[in-house]
Design brief:
The chain is α/β, with parallel strands linked by helices. The protein is built from 13 helices and 19 strands. Pfam families: GcpE, GcpE_C.
Length: about 400
């Protein structure tokens, strides 16, 4: 059991983040927000994939004007996912000039490095916090190492240079990230926003940097924490880097909401980042979203590709059935299904799963024993193995999971 770092719970449009609540999955659209139709469609896709919060860019007057229409359109589709507004540079003005936008959003994201400079920074930050208080909205104070507060950087770099043994630049940057987040969170409290309305994040693109910063945040505060590796990258690089960083922190009990910021490959769905978040949480045993298919990698004993094809077919079948099963059966997302390729580990792994099938390897008897809850159930043969195995899955779900 992972011992969670205790943080203050924050309600974001009815989704409670922090405290003793499960880690929440977040995503972000990449549509132009003023394109109402496209933003509604992508937000709905992300929500259908399992995103529990969706962030949208609010960078222009047209985008701000579109937000309430996006909210209305989603509501008409029955999509209740809370919308988070991502503000930079002109957020104070947009929130003031478009009160319907301020009302429609469930949370505002403020980047302290992009609020302004000098006296303007203090006033513009205060304006955004005042709007959040007036509309009773939580705020994420999101520090990003690509857009740090320049005045804070100069101040802390100068202070470091005067030390008898100055720290390395990378170490000072980590310090700046933490100080920026905490100073601005406390400033928000001084302006009247309670700790129960504040989420903080410190986005970095290096795994060790991110881990180091969040460990310090957890040691120094109990604010709700949003985790994410910024500019993670594309494909396997982005997935592996994000997984490495988030898994370390989540294993230490740090983090209340997460996002995997993947650069989509051409033609790839934006929902991939949601799936990766879910797999990280499920692999760590923190939450369950989908029945898991356990399949061996294959070796010289499994020259046939049939077990690979069956594993893919069963995984696709589970994804297809889950929207229905989820509404009908409680706990089905925790089911384990094994599709194994030979006699070496096949029977053993199949017995450990709720349902498992051990396919014959090269030179083995052309029969596939099926195990249900550790006991041999029957042996399948012939051309209809996939169809029969699906029928066994359907029956198991109906018989073993409580109807809602």
């Amino acid at each position: 059991m992972i011992q969670r770092h205790k943080t203050v719970a924050v309600s974001v449009g009815g989704v409670v983040v922090g405290g003793d609540n499960p880690v929440v999955v977040q995503s972000m659209t990449n549509t132009a927000t003023e394109d109402i139709k496209a933003t509604i469609e992508q937000t709905a896709q992300l929500a259908q994939a399992g995103s529990e919060l969706v962030r949208i860019t609010v960078n222009t007057e047209e985008a701000a004007a579109a937000v309430p229409h996006i909210r209305d359109g989603l509501d008409k589709l029955g999509v209740s996912v809370p919308l988070v507004g991502d503000f930079h540079f002109n957020g104070h003005r947009l929130l003031n000039d478009f009160p319907a936008c301020a009302e429609a959003l469930a949370k505002y994201r403020i980047n302290p490095g992009n609020v302004g400079s000098g006296e303007k920074k203090d006033q513009q930050f205060a304006d955004m916090i005042e709007t959040a208080s007036r509309f009773d909205k939580p705020v994420r104070i999101g520090v990003n190492w690509g857009s740090l507060d320049k005045q804070l950087v100069v101040r802390m770099m100068d202070e470091n240079a005067k030390l008898p043994e100055p720290k390395e630049t990378e170490e000072v940057i980590r310090d700046i990230m933490v100080v920026s987040a905490l100073e601005n969170a406390r400033r928000a409290e001084e302006l009247g926003l309670s700790a129960g309305k504040i989420i903080i994040s410190c986005k970095m693109s290096g795994v060790q940097d991110l881990v180091g910063v969040y460990q310090r945040l957890a040691e120094q505060s109990n604010y709700t924490l949003h985790l994410g590796l910024t500019e993670a990258g594309m494909g396997s690089k982005g997935i592996v880097s994000s997984t490495a960083a988030l898994a370390i922190l989540l294993q230490q009990g740090i983090g209340d909401t997460i996002r995997v910021s993947l650069t989509p490959e051409p033609g790839q769905s934006r929902t991939t980042e949601v799936t990766v978040c879910q797999q990280i949480l499920q692999s760590l045993g923190l939450r369950s979203f989908m029945p898991q298919v356990i399949a061996c990698p294959g070796c010289g004993r499994t020259t046939s590709t049939y077990f690979q094809e069956l594993a893919k077919e069963i995984e696709d079948y589970l994804k297809q059935q889950m929207p229905v099963w989820r509404t009908q059966y409680r706990g089905v997302e925790e089911m384990d299904v094994a599709v194994m390729g030979c006699i070496v580990n096949g029977p053993g792994e199949s017995k450990h799963a709720n349902i498992g099938i051990s396919l014959p390897g090269t030179g083995e008897s052309p029969a596939a024993p099926v195990f249900v809850d550790g006991k041999k159930f029957k042996t399948l043969k012939g051309e209809g193995i996939a169809a029969e195995f699906k029928q066994i899955l359907d029956s198991y779900v109906q018989d073993h999971y409580t109807t809602r």
